[in-house]
Amino acid sequence: MIEILRYPSFRSLFLAQVIALVGTGLATVALALLAYDLAGDQAGAVLGTALAIKMTVYVLLSPVAAALIPRTRRKVVLIALDLVRAGVALCLPFVTEIWQVYLLIALLQSASACFTPLFQSLIPEILPEERDYTRALSLSRLAYDLESLLSPLLAAALLTVINFHGLFAGTSLGFVLSALLVLGTRFPAVVDARTGGSPYARAIRGMRIYLQTPRLRGLLALNLVAAAGGAMVFVNTVVIVRTVLGGGDREVAWALAAFGGGSMFVALLLPKLLDRVPDRRVMLTAAIAMVISLSATAVLWLGSGDRIGWPVLIPAWLLLGMAYAGLVTPGGRLLRRSAVSDDLPFLFAAQFSLSHVCWLLAYPLAGWVGAKMGLGTALVALALLSMLGCATAVLTWPKQDPSSVPHRHEDLPPDHPHLAEHAKADNGEHEHPYMIDEIHERWPR
């Protein structure tokens, strides 16, 4: 997997991603501690609201932003977005009211909602070969896991010499370094091929492709499973460690690192595994593991009278991290199989937006239910949410999911160029890699 870094453009973008995500990870730890500082044992509700704001911004902005930004201007826009995020991060240490947290999170995540789909859409253009792209996805997944593994470890070390407000400075520095690396990256030469239609129409194109493709509807359901487990960890770890276990800032960082460690372990195994095992089997296995892990933790929590200890928390968070990586890492492969190159930016934006609808459900459920009804109840609610997602994925994503699908076009004239190229049978039936586009508007039955 590491050999994929021999491509200079991907190497620079990957380093930019790593550095920005380390900074984001520091901000995640600092934000949790800031919420506890401002709200005490109600920190879960504050974090749930802040992260719900983040998800709302992602859902609303990311598809339109990707449609508005020309492919030939992505470099300038990515640099500008990094600098905006750096400036907002510098403001976070000075907040004194909860509403200020919400406002700055909305500004910070508005920039991220534009940045991430643009970044993701570059990878298949830089690495057009399936094998290389698969390894790049796993390496990129590892970079995301730095936010939940190495960043908390670094935060734990930094918190021995500075208070948590200083972590926001590290976030800002990460975004500045990311901008410099993007500036030095050679982007693939492209011509902006989008013609006609409003930005809204171009954004809807990605949504239409996504929701008309069975494997991607299954992916959306699996995103709900991943969100259920991730929300419990990201929202309630600080409350569990500080209130239930009596730990401090560094212990919060170590608990988050357990989740990231499990995720990184699985992400390292996935490239070779996905060469031999279908994506569907890997992802559904991870979904079942997530359901079992959440359910078992809920039973242990309620059975202990809301007084679990470290021997339960660390293994539970480790298993949730392992299941999480198995759910989210292969997703990019499914997207790449499901659209032509010109539509990939819209499809990545649709995935970014629709997957965050799942997080928009899970974050308030974890935060508000945990604050009002207890963390054990929140675990039960999230376990039920993960069961719903897992069952929906099994029903939605067909067992047989070939790239090429036999089909006919009843609405095309016999002399249409598409039929002239592909149709061999007298009834017009033909087979080729099937993707939703202007000619193929619906998936064949």
TrEMBL record:
Residues 9-401 form the Major facilitator superfamily (MFS) profile domain. It is found in: Cell membrane. Residues 407-427 have a biased composition (Basic and acidic residues). InterPro entries: MFS, MFS_dom, MFS_trans_sf. One of its GO terms (molecular function) is transmembrane transporter activity. Its main location: membrane. The lineage of its organism: Bacteria, Pseudomonadati, Pseudomonadota, Gammaproteobacteria, Lysobacterales. Residues 401-427 are annotated as: Disordered. This is Putative MFS family arabinose efflux permease.
